[in-house]
Amino acid sequence: MTVVLSVPPAGPAPALRLRPWRADDLPALVAAHRDPLLRRWLATSLTGEAEARQWLDAQEAAWAKATRLSFAVVADDRSPLGHVVVKPTSAGTAEVGYWTAAHARGLGIAARAVDTLSHWALGTQDVVALTRLELVHAVGNHPSCRVAVKCGYALHDLIPAAPPAFPTEGHRHVRC
């Protein structure tokens, strides 16, 4: 099943599309992961084309099993500006994740994409039935906290650090 979600324009910001990742997204994916700020906040980052290719293959396989529903965020179906994902974790619950490429930050893209994905994930029964979404970020990642709040995710609890994968405390925001 191919799912494409539309995000209407917001003021001067263009309309966006959330679509499955494709092989021709490889250069944009590698370029985005070269950004030190992005690497700072991600649990894993891609260091080159081979890893990016494996990541793209894993996204496609996970879609087929409905275990990770990831989307490239694009404007006019051009090069990806970011990424949003829904990862079912237990019955009715999923974690939402996202990132925005350095050149696309500060334009409201993350909030618009996360909000659209959240509405879809809670409203669709086509792929997986969800009633609760969780958005987790490091305590010091203030932009992610603002995106969570803007998208209707309430702060639920503080998550203790779990090095080495999660070296700092985190916030868990919830949207039902």
Automatic annotation (TrEMBL):
Pfam families hit by this protein: Acetyltransf_3 (PF13302)
Organism superkingdom: Bacteria
Stretches assigned to the N-acetyltransferase domain: 16-176
Signal peptide start-end: none
Taxonomic lineage: Bacteria, Bacillati, Actinomycetota, Actinomycetes, Pseudonocardiales
Coiled coil: none
InterPro entries: Acyl_CoA_acyltransferase (IPR016181), GNAT_dom (IPR000182), Ribosomal_N-acetyltransferase (IPR051908)
Protein name according to UniProt: GNAT family N-acetyltransferase
